[in-house]
Amino acid sequence: MTTNLQAAATLHNGTTMPWFGLGVFKVEEGAELVSAVKAAIKHGYRSIDTAAIYGNEHGVGQGIREALEETGLSREQLFVTSKVWNSDLGYESTLAAYETSLQKLGLDYLDLYLIHWPKKGLYKEAWKAMETLYADGKVKAIGVSNFQIHHLEDLMKDAKVKPVVNQVEFHPRLIQQELRAFCKKHDIQLEAWSPLMQGQLLDEPLLQEIAAKHNKTVAQVILRWDLQHGVITIPKSTKEHRISENADVFDFELTSDEVARIDSLNQNLRVGPDPDNFDF
């Protein structure tokens, strides 16, 4: 089981990806973003997740560059993810979107590039472009986000390269059991976005009970639960003390009974869009 913040999963193409990272959804460009990225790297994070639609790739890149300079780490020691947005889901437009993201980030390559949403009728052309980027060595791994089972089945019918990652909404109110089983069967690594359900679970009595038993916060219990399910997780925070606290999940382990009790909180409840009805 995952024992430290630099521990990494081995994806099916052999690329290693940290189990734990920083998400920057809805963090605006500016000093707060740069500071958050730097704080995460200073506290041992090695994975940063952004996206074109977040509008903050420039600040993420600045934070990375400043952190590398201050810590002496190399670019190769970090794992950087971005995503192509729905409006760019075509072959040429996806290739162009990738180059735009690289330019904004100020990087020579990405470790992981994802299709952000399975926009009907467009993601297959985008995937061909992703395969080209991968074949040309411009990205170390390619994957998808918010794909349900039928989207994955449809994509894999024609794909030359199987997605290495599926990043989806995952938390104790949405445990994605069937999707997790499908991804495990096909060796596609599941990754959680919104693991803390945007803070909506912090008052849940069961989680508070388990947290008290382990002398941990509810957030730490949820993030540990992610890891024990074999799900990569990328909690978002801009506050340095919270960034550090979120990552303090490697010195305890939930019992199988506690994991099952947390699983029982499932209500198939989303805080984000339903992938079958999201058409932006």
Topology:
Layout: E1 8-10, E2 16-18, E3 22-23, H1 31-42, E4 47-49, H2 57-71, E5 79-84, H3 91-105, E6 110-115, H4 123-135, E7 139-145, H5 149-158, E8 165-169, H6 177-185, E9 189-193, H7 205-214, H8 218-228, E10 232-233, H9 240-246, H10 256-263
Parallel strand pairs: 3-4, 4-5, 5-6, 6-7, 7-8, 8-9, 9-10
Antiparallel strand pairs: 1-2
Structure description:
- With 280 residues, the chain is an alpha/beta fold.
- It has 10 helices and 10 strands.
- An 8-stranded parallel β-sheet has the order 3-4-5-6-7-8-9-10. A two-stranded antiparallel ribbon has the order 1-2.
- β7 (139-145), α5 and β8 form a beta-alpha-beta unit.
- α1 (31-42) crosses α2 (57-71).
- The mean pLDDT is 96.
- Its EC number is 1.-.-.-.
- This is Oxidoreductase YtbE.
- One of its GO terms (molecular function) is oxidoreductase activity.
- Keywords: Oxidoreductase.
Indicate how many domains the architecture comprises.
1
Strand fraction: 15-25%
- Poorly predicted spans: none
Overall mean pLDDT: 96
Write the element-wise H/E pattern from the N-terminal end onward. Answer: EEEHEHEHEHEHEHEHHEHH
EC number: 1.-.-.-
Keywords: Oxidoreductase
Organism: Paenibacillus plantiphilus
GO molecular function: oxidoreductase activity
